[in-house]
């Protein structure tokens, strides 16, 4: 799943590539991916792309000069991605026969497809007058890349929450943009159990967590910066120390990286670095194996 650093890299790529171009055609191949109807998607035809921005894990292309001032907003969800072409293919998209959900053609002959692999379709596309009209954006918490997001901001978000810290970091209404992968990486860097309750963290814990979040996300954004979309996923995988590395050696202490499995995902952690050597059990059964 693309998370904030990859989405930021994607935004920077698009900002340098599509700003100032006109949208010549928009083709919807998976109508279920389009979540809005007013303005109609045709309002984008003839519009100029003025800016590209990120809201959490949402990408926002602001346009003007078409049928109405509109924003093309999309969330790539778990298995979605953007495929950019310097020369857009002329092949006809066949709905139901392709992973392509949406195709956008641009005035210089380039364009992009929004694609989604797998059978569980969660990719979401919106055409709105204002980004805040997208429910997921309206609910977003503060962005940890915002200079206004400080150690005290984080402390205030954690105070009184009797929720496991892993869940707090992933909650988009609490902190925008951090997902499953980077929450694993942040907690590993902070030497903190994913099952620790947010309300039990003391000042030193909050200091360590804030520094780990700042450093982990900054490094990931730097790794994604300047890369085309086709290279962003591999850059993400290469930067992971524990996430997706079950059975491998922790690069800090050499212990075996372990997993906890849930219905549709998993978390990874290092017992020596994060849980005092204890092996975490599936939380549906028990907090800890003792």
UniProtKB/TrEMBL annotation:
Chain ranges of the FPG-type domain: 241-275
What InterPro entries does this protein's entry cite? FPG_cat, FPG_N, H2TH_FPG, Ribosomal_uS13-like_H2TH, Znf_DNA_glyclase/AP_lyase, Znf_FPG/IleRS
Q: Which keywords does this Swiss-Prot/TrEMBL entry list?
A: DNA damage, DNA repair, DNA-binding, Glycosidase, Hydrolase, Lyase, Metal-binding, Multifunctional enzyme, Zinc, Zinc-finger
CDD domains reported for this sequence = BaFpgNei_N_1
> Which cofactors must be present for this protein to function?
Zn(2+)
* Domain Formamidopyrimidine-DNA glycosylase catalytic residue range list: 2-123
Enzymatic reactions: Hydrolysis of DNA containing ring-opened 7-methylguanine residues, releasing 2,6-diamino-4-hydroxy-5-(N-methyl)formamidopyrimidine
Pfam families from the xrefs?
Fapy_DNA_glyco, H2TH, zf-FPG_IleRS
Its family remark reads: Belongs to the FPG family.
- UniProt name for this protein: Fpg/Nei family DNA glycosylase
Q: Which organism is it from?
A: Microbacterium insulae
